[in-house]
Design goal:
Elements: H1 6-27, E1 30-38, E2 44-52, H2 56-60, E3 65-71, E4 82-88, E5 106-111, H3 119-122, E6 127-132, E7 137-141, H4 147-174, E8 190-195, E9 200-203, E10 208-210, H5 213-217, H6 222-245
Parallel strand pairs: 3-8
Antiparallel strand pairs: 1-2, 3-4, 5-6, 6-7, 8-9, 9-10
């Protein structure tokens, strides 16, 4: 989700999405976009996507947090460096068991979709809006031509958002007793800076700086991810040792 920085933040959210897509491609994981709010310049105010494949969550879970970019925007005539942010939330897909939604709690509306997509999209009531009554969460989906597919997609997004809310509440409760050794794990934490003029990426949680920004944004994330996983494992082992010493 684009944070501070207007159009440039949305473009940066697009950069991050392409980075994760390229990484997924290399890992042979499947990427499926659930919903996106694109801007005229080709960025995203928000994009929700699913990455499926072996080890996807365990390798990407440390990407949650605020990512900061420093670069000269294409829209900047004076050549000044701007700082923008985008927030990433990585969640494991909610299993039916973990998140039970009562059928009575859902209200469905169907309507004719509008916007790009040609006439075939607009001739039937294929768009679906689903409201989760207890929380007033609303998700609309009109990407597909079939009402059924739109309903499935809308429910998938709703499940992700509800699960996101539950996770956020749980995170706040556990903030005092964080288990993760890498950063706080909170969404507001600034975790990484991408400095384009210097070609530098810095992960603030483990003080790792790499001067290969072009490769990183093209999906070469293994060095950062491996370092984060190692730091987390070392931290957990240290904690176990400390507990035994106490």
């Amino acid at each position: 989700r684009a944070g501070t920085g207007g159009d440039e933040a949305a473009l940066f959210a697009g950069t991050l999405f392409r980075m994760y897509s390229r990484y997924a491609e290399v890992q042979r994981w499947k990427v499926d976009i659930l919903s996106n709010n694109a801007t005229e310049l080709g960025g995203f105010k928000e994009i929700i996507f699913v990455i499926e494949g072996k080890g996807a969550y365990s390798r990407l879970k440390f990407e949650s947090g605020v990512h900061r970019v420093q670069r000269i925007p294409t829209t900047e005539a004076g050549g000044r460096i701007h700082t923008s942010t985008a927030t990433v939330a990585v969640l494991p897909e909610a299993e039916e068991v973990e998140l039970h939604i009562e059928a009575n709690d859902l209200k469905f509306d169907v309507y004719r979709s509008s916007g790009p997509g040609g006439q075939s999209v607009n001739t039937t009531d294929s768009a679906v809006r689903v409201t989760h009554l207890p929380t007033d969460l609303v998700v609309a989906c009109q990407d597909e031509k079939s009402q059924l597919k739109n309903k499935e997609k809308a429910l998938k997004i709703l499940r992700a958002r509800l699960y996101d809310q539950l996770q956020e509440e749980a995170e706040q409760e556990q903030a005092a007793a964080r288990r993760s050794q890498v950063g706080t794990g909170e969404r507001s934490e600034r975790i990484r800076t991408y400095n384009f003029p210097q070609g530098r990426v810095t992960d603030h949680r483990i003080n790792l700086t790499l001067y290969k920004l072009d490769f990183v944004v093209d999906g070469d994330l293994d060095e950062i991810i491996d370092a984060l996983i190692t730091a987390d494992e070392v931290g957990r082992l240290k904690e176990i040792v400390d507990v035994h010493h106490d």
